[in-house]
Amino acid sequence: MKRLLLVSCVVVLSACSMLRTKMEPVAVARAQPVDTRMLDANGVSIERIPFRAGVSSVTVERLGKQRDCDSSEGAGLMTPPGPVEVYRMVCSSGKVFMARCELRQCKAM
Fold first, then answer.
1. How much of the chain is in helix, strand and coil states, percent to nearest 5?
2. What is the pLDDT of residues 4-62, one digit of tens each?
3. Alpha-carbon dihedral sign for residues 100, 63, 55, 105
C-alpha cells in the first residue's frame, strides 16, 4: 500500500514538471509616496516630531499639572538626551507647555 502511494506521488509530480511553462516577468508599478506633510495657513510645511519619553518626563508632567496643563500623551523629549533637555507637552486645552531640564532640575519655559 505504501509503495502504491509512493509511486502515485512520483507519477503526479513528474506530470506536473512536464507541464511547467516559462514564467515571464511582469512589470510591477511602483507605489507613489504619499505626501504626509502638514501645511500651515501660509503653505509652509510643519515638522512632525515623534513622541519620545525622557528621563524627566514625569517631572515635567507634574510641573504642567501645577500650571493647569493636563495631557493625555504626556511630556515628550524634543532634544537629544543629555545634561540639558527640552520637553514639550500639549495640554488638553490646546496650549503647549514646555520645560527645560538641566541635570534633572526642570523649570518651565
1. 25, 20, 55
2. 555 565 555 555 555 556 666 666 666 666 555 677 788 888 777 788 999 999 999 99
3. positive
